[in-house]
Amino acid sequence: MQLKTAITLTFFTLLFTKISAQTTKTTSGNPIVEGWYADPEGVILNKEFWVFPTFSAKYKDQVFLDAFSSKDMVNWTKHPRIIDTSAVKWANKAMWAPSIVKKDNKYFLFFSANDIQSSERKGFGPNNPDKDDKIGGIGIGVASRPEGPYKDYLGKPLINQFYNKAQPIDQYVFQDKDKQYYIMYGGWGRCNIAKLNKDFTALVPYENGDLVKEITPKGYVEGPTMFVRKGKYYLMWSEGGWTNGTYKVAYGVSDNVFGPFEKKSTILVADEAVATGAGHHSVINIPNTDDWYIVYHRRPIPNLDRDHRVTCIDRMYFNEDDTIKDVKMTFEGVRKVKLK
To answer: ∠280-298-122 over CA atoms, to 5°?
Structure first.
């Protein structure tokens, strides 16, 4: 009886300590969650903050995706294995860079898998398209809740071709003011944009018959994301190498979703006092405000491994001329935010 009582007291003590810590915690801290995570997609769903990252590990171990939710951007709850390769039969490794959209009371989780390679990259030359890897690319999971579980929506990749020499990875899905959904994506220094049909089962050809348009800005490497502010379209992307400290974030501005996006500046770079290799990010805007947050990954100092990346959040501010100020990386993170 005494042992049972002691165990019960220990349990409630730990529970109280955890609740007390969440109550008194005033900033998120960076990283915002434990573990190695990269390529975070930050969104607001059902009046909660959500982050959908890549599990940062060797490709063969990247066979699932976790998600995290928060009511205040400070205290985060983990939702493990919202999707994995057991639900996506064509995927076997390298599940990367989720992007989520809520549509018709369903949640569509776009992701890339298998790190497929083109014939040129594999050394077969441009005249051997049959040597392209075709089993992999960008797929879609669907669920009735943000935390899943997600099942394979199409039973195959949505995009598994190397249009304009862009690797089909790092997808971001964006709804324009005309309610049209676009998917922008691309690795290997190329960025494409395509129209999605109404049920997300295929791409809609442009007037010239092409399925995608290239919108690659100067300096682009990978990781596109987009938002609209004051009627202007901001395309942001990552430059440098993801495996080292050269990784960084740049952006351009245009009057429409297709650009052209001339590079304005680089706004998130290594800070030897905080971290290096900061990039592959997303942006959260608090509704009906001009409050902006950047959700990104970075490499802690000292860095332990190629895959030692962690997910962080900091504020993002604008100048009077609507250019983006340089982002200051912090260890404190952000203060509590309550969504109305």
So the answer is: 55
Check residue 22 and give its pLDDT: 52
Spot the catalytic one: 39, 66, 307, 314.
39
* pTM given for the model: 0.92
Select which of 170, 222, 307, 314 is catalytic.
222
Q: Is 239 a catalytic residue?
A: no
How does DSSP assign 23-52, residue by residue?
HH--B--SSSSSS-EEEEEEEEETTEEEEE
Cβ 298 vs Cβ 310: under 8 Å: yes
pLDDT of residue 23: 57
Tell me the pLDDT band of 11, cut-offs 50, 70 and 90. Answer: very low
Is residue 222 annotated as part of the catalytic site, yes or no?
yes
Residue 41 CA to residue 66 CA, distance in Å, equals 12
Ordered DSSP codes for 326-340: PP---SS--B-----
Asked if 51 contacts 42 with a C-beta cutoff of 8 angstroms, the reply is yes
Task: Give the separation between CA 240 and CA 322, rounded to whole angstroms.
Answer: 25
Task: Report how far residue 41's alpha carbon sits from residue 38's, in angstroms, rounded to the nearest whole number.
Answer: 9
SS3 of 177, please? Answer: coil
For residue range 17-45, what is the model confidence (pLDDT) as tens digits? 444 445 578 999 999 999 999 999 999 99
